[in-house]
Amino acid sequence: MPTVEPILEIRGVQKFFGGRQVLKNIDLVVAPGETVVIIGGSGSGKSTLLRTIIGEHAPDAGHVYLWGEDVCHASPRRLDKIRQRFGILFQSGALYSSMTVGENVALPLREHTDLDDKIIQMVVKMKLELVGLRDFENLMPSQVSGGMRKRVGLARAVARDPEILFYDEPTAGLDPIATSVCDQLVIDLRTKLGVTSLVVTHDMKSALRIADRLAMLYNGEFIAIGPPADFRQPADPRVRQFVEGLADGPIPLRVSKTDYLADLLGLHEKREPATGNRP
Amino acid sequence: MSTTGLVRLLERVGGQGEGFLAYLGGLGYLTLDALKHTALGLVIRPRIKIDETLFQMVRLGVRAVPIIALVQIFVGMILALQLAPVLADYGQLDKVATVVSIAVFRELGPLISAVVLTGFAGAAIAAELGTMVVGEEIAALRTSAIHPVRFLVVPRIIACLLTTVALTVLADIVGAVGGGLIDRWVLQGDSWQYYHTTIESLALKDFLTGLIKSAVFAFIIVLVSCYEGLSVTGGAEGVGRATTRSVVLAIFLIIAADCAFTTFFYFFW
Ligand SMILES: Nc1ncnc2c1ncn2[C@@H]1O[C@H](COP(=O)(O)OP(=O)(O)OP(=O)(O)O)[C@@H](O)[C@H]1O
Ligand SMILES: [Mg+2]
């Protein structure tokens, strides 16, 4: 494995939002054909990491390489070339609201290929069939449910048969059966077509089912990276708490730094006089 | 008002935090980008999206025909009614057609149409693009290597430009007709005479300067609204803010540009 040229390489990526560090020193290497699942609590920076990888956010430090090319410093032209080789499913689905479900899936094909309209129609039907939504081709995104929008987003992401796919919580909002179908799709894409996947999720069952490797993001850092076996009986108490979904443990639900009681009674404001001119 | 006062006022209109100049810089960048993509789209692939452009022309322009016609007929009527007493004092009541037509063709046709279209088309564009930003649709376009400026802004620019100029022609005619209605029914004038006086008093220059201005106004409307829409942050509330700002700023820039152009035409043409 180590001799294979990695498809995705993340080196020392850091990201700040207005003085708050969301990503601290992220390192990750993904080999071709591998399915890597990133788990982590809400707000731990998973979507931010994905957006950095696809070149939406520039990182404040570090580099992201796709096929050996630096995404953060590529010219717009090169970046477009890179972007044509991957597919992404956004957390919200991000369907084009002015186009029908079918047109959403067809758009990448229309824009980047010279395919005949008949062939595009066929591909659209095939991709929608993959996610079980062939009958909904002519509906508008506002006319389908949230879970269905996710699946349309997935069909659109695979429309051009990308070499690497990024999924932001593909199964959030899906029923158990649709979740299984989605998991099976990720597995099939890998085994049959050799597609590489980077999946962000907090659904542990699905993570363990599809992953070659898991990585847990906590406080902007990977605190554990390894094969699924390592995550079934995790040694790290923080990982165990997350995997087993326990309310009590080293990871607090409440991340506020100020004392709850003091906050309720407004004691902080008295101790540190406000800078504004409020009474 | 002092210059610094004006700049400060503009800054408040133009943005919170970022200065007005930075705002103009962003607008200028979008303009250049859009021109580049238009030029590229005319000669090489990927081509300009014709069907999207036609769709936008209907949405932004054709649907505005009734409102523009209605507003302009009132404008023509108001002009005739306001000017009639003054002209009567000088015994020049037969010159109502002249005054109305010059005012409408040179000034009020283009200006009022642009202001109405700012509310009609500009607000729609800003709200639509802003909603697309919030729904991550723009990010999705970008990450599918589809340039939002080429895909969304260029068709809107072309559509807005063509429809605004066409609507201004309509507005000119309807405005003159509005004056004619008052001339006939209130001032008891002769409609045939009104028509002839209108044709005689208008020079090609009056018509052309009006159209040039309306093309500039169209640019202002579409660029400001696209820029505001594409730079939305902060959810649905941000969309509302951007829509309001795009209308206020576009109207301000339209009137400022109108003043500049009128001055220029006064001295040089
Ligand atoms: N554009 C932004 N501006 C400021 N802060 C942001 C921005 N985007 C994200 N953040 C902050 O970064 C942190 C991580 O957000 P992110 O969306 O990456 O979380 P996540 O791990 O995907 O959570 P979830 O599982 O709920 O989707 C959050 O605390 C969020 O407030
Ligand atoms: Mg997220």
Layout of helices and strands, plus pairs?
The complex is a heterodimer of chains A (279) and B (269).
Chain A: E1 8-17, E2 20-30, E3 35-40, H1 46-53, E4 61-66, E5 69-70, H2 76-83, E6 86-89, H3 101-112, H4 117-130, H5 146-157, E7 164-168, H6 176-193, E8 196-200, H7 204-210, E9 213-218, E10 221-226, H8 228-232, H9 237-244, H10 260-264, H11 267-271
Parallel strand pairs in A: 3-8, 3-9, 6-7, 7-8
Antiparallel strand pairs in A: 1-2, 1-4, 4-5, 9-10
Chain B: H1 3-14, H2 20-43, H3 50-60, H4 65-89, H5 96-134, H6 137-143, H7 148-185, H8 191-201, H9 204-230, H10 235-268
Describe this structure in words.
The complex is a heterodimer of chains A (279) and B (269). With 279 residues, chain A is of the alpha/beta class. Chain A has a domain at 1-85 and 164-170 and 194-270: Rossmann fold, CATH 3.40.50.300. Chain A is built from eleven helices and ten strands. Chain A is globular, with a radius of gyration of 21 Å. In chain A, 37% of the residues are buried. Chain B has one domain (27-38, 49-261). Chain B is 85% helix and 0% strand. In chain B, helix 3 packs parallel to helix 7 (148-185), helix 5 (96-134) packs across helix 8 (191-201) and helix 5 (96-134) runs antiparallel to helix 10. The two termini of chain B are 30 Å apart. The interface between A and B is medium-sized, with 21 and 17 residues.
Features:
heterodimer; A: 279 residues; alpha/beta; Rossmann fold; 6-stranded mixed beta sheet; 4-stranded antiparallel beta sheet; 11 helices; 37% helix; globular; B: 269 residues; mainly alpha; binds adenosine-5'-triphosphate; binds magnesium ion
